[in-house]
C-alpha cells in the first residue's frame, strides 16, 4: 500500500458499485483507494446475492433428490446437515471476497477496512476500525455505501425470533415456523428456501400480489406454485401488533375488516431497505438528498463538486448489476472516458423456484399508458427440453408494439428464467424486433427456444402451440 495518501479517486464502499468503480479507475492508471466497513464485496457478495444463491441451490438440489424416483433413482432417507449447508454458502462468499481483494491488488487499488467520513470536499477520515484516525485526500470521491435492511419500529433483531436476510444467512438451524413479512424478491427467495428444508412458512404482503413489481400474470403463477409447496400466502394484508413471545412471535394479520392472530417461531422482515448514510457526511458538508438518498446529476455528481455517488445509495432500483453499471458510468465520465449514461432498461430477477426474470414494461403499465400492444406467450409445457428435465412450470411472455414489432417488455417465469432474460435484454438494447428474435435459429432442444416461440406467437407463426 502506498504511503502517499493523496489519491485521484477514493471510493467509499466496497460492494458491487464501489469495488467495480475502484477497479475501473485502477485500469485507467489512476491512483485509487477503496474504503469498506467490513469486507470487499459489500453486502451483496458477503451477506446478500452470493451466499443466498448458494443456499437456494442447496434447497433446489434437496427438493430434486426427494423426487429422484421420477428420474429412475431410489434415494431413501435423505438427511440434511443444515450447518454444512450454511457453511458452504459462507465458504462461497469468502472465496468471492478473496477474489475482489486479489483484483484490488492486481489493479493497484489501496484497500482500507473501516468506516469513512467525508470531512470536507476532497478529504476523508476513517472514523472506525483498525485504520481509525487515518486521513486521506483525493481529487474525486465516489460514495457507494449502499443500503441495509429496513426494520419496523419497535422490533429488535435477535437472529432467532426477529430476523432480516442478513441474520438468516448465518443461522445454523431451521426454525419450525416462519412468517415472512414482505413478498418482494428477498422475501420470496427465503420463503422458498425455508419451506424446502421443512419450515412452515407464511408470506404476508401489503400489496395486491407477491413480487409486486412484476407483471401480474407472472406474480399469480408464482403464488400458485408457492401454495402447492404448502406455503401460506396472504396478499393485501397488513401485519399489526407484532410481539415476541416466550416461544417466538405473535402478530395480527389484517385484511380489510378481518383480523386473524397467528404465531410462529420466527419473523423474517423483508420490507425494503434504507440508505447507509450514518456518519458518512460531516456537518461541514451539505450534500443534497432526495428522501434520504443522495441526489446526483446526469454525471453522477452531487451538488458538491468532486463528490459523486452511485449504486443503491442514490435510490431505486436496488440491484447489484444496476449499481455496477452506475459506478462504471460515473468513473468513466469523471476521467473523460465518454459521457455517462443513466440507467434505462434493466433486468430484474428473483431466484426462488420457479424463477422470475423481466425487463421493460409490464402489461399493466402498457394498459395504463394506453399503448397498443401485442402479446406473445409460450408455456414451458410445450417445450421439449422443459418437459424432459421436469421443469415445465411457467412461461415466456413478450410484449410488443403492434405497428413495428418493437419489444416493449419481456417476462419469464420458470426454470433458468434469470439466465434466459439476457437474450431479450440484448435484443432490446440493440432495438431488435420480435421478428428478428423469431428469425434467429435457436438450438434444439433448449429452454431458450421458448423465447423464439413467444416472439413467433405475436405474429401467429408459432409451431409448437
Q: What percent of the residues sit in helical stretches (DSSP H or I)? A: 25-40%
Q: Please report the total strand number as a whole number.
A: 24
Put simply, the count of helices is: 13
At the first level of CATH, the class of the largest domain is Alpha Beta
**CATH homology-level superfamily of the largest domain:** FAD/NAD(P)-binding domain
Largest sheet: 7 strands, mixed
Question: What's the CATH architecture name of the largest domain?
Answer: 3-Layer(bba) Sandwich
Q: Give the overall shape, derived from the CA principal axes.
A: globular
Summed up, the domain count is 3
Instruction: Estimate what percentage of residues fall within beta strands.
Output: 25-35%
Task: Explain how this protein is built.
This protein has 465 residues and is α/β, with parallel strands linked by helices. The protein has three domains: 6-149 and 274-334, FAD/NAD(P)-binding domain; 162-271, FAD/NAD(P)-binding domain (3-Layer(bba) Sandwich); 354-457, Enolase-like, domain 1, CATH 3.30.390.30. It is built from 13 helices and 24 strands.
Please render the helix and strand layout as text:
Elements: E1 6-12, H1 18-27, E2 32-36, H2 42-47, H3 49-66, H4 82-106, E3 109-113, E4 115-120, E5 123-128, E6 135-143, E7 147-149, E8 162-163, H5 165-169, E9 177-181, H6 185-196, E10 200-204, H7 216-228, E11 232-234, E12 238-244, E13 249-255, E14 258-264, E15 266-269, E16 273-275, E17 289-290, E18 293-294, E19 307-309, H8 320-334, E20 348-350, E21 355-360, H9 363-369, E22 373-379, H10 384-388, E23 395-401, E24 407-414, H11 417-429, H12 434-439, H13 449-457
Parallel strand pairs: 1-2, 1-6, 2-3, 6-19, 8-15, 9-10, 9-15, 10-11
Antiparallel strand pairs: 4-5, 5-6, 7-16, 12-13, 13-14, 17-18, 20-21, 21-24, 22-23, 23-24
Helix pairs in contact: 1-8, 3-4, 3-6
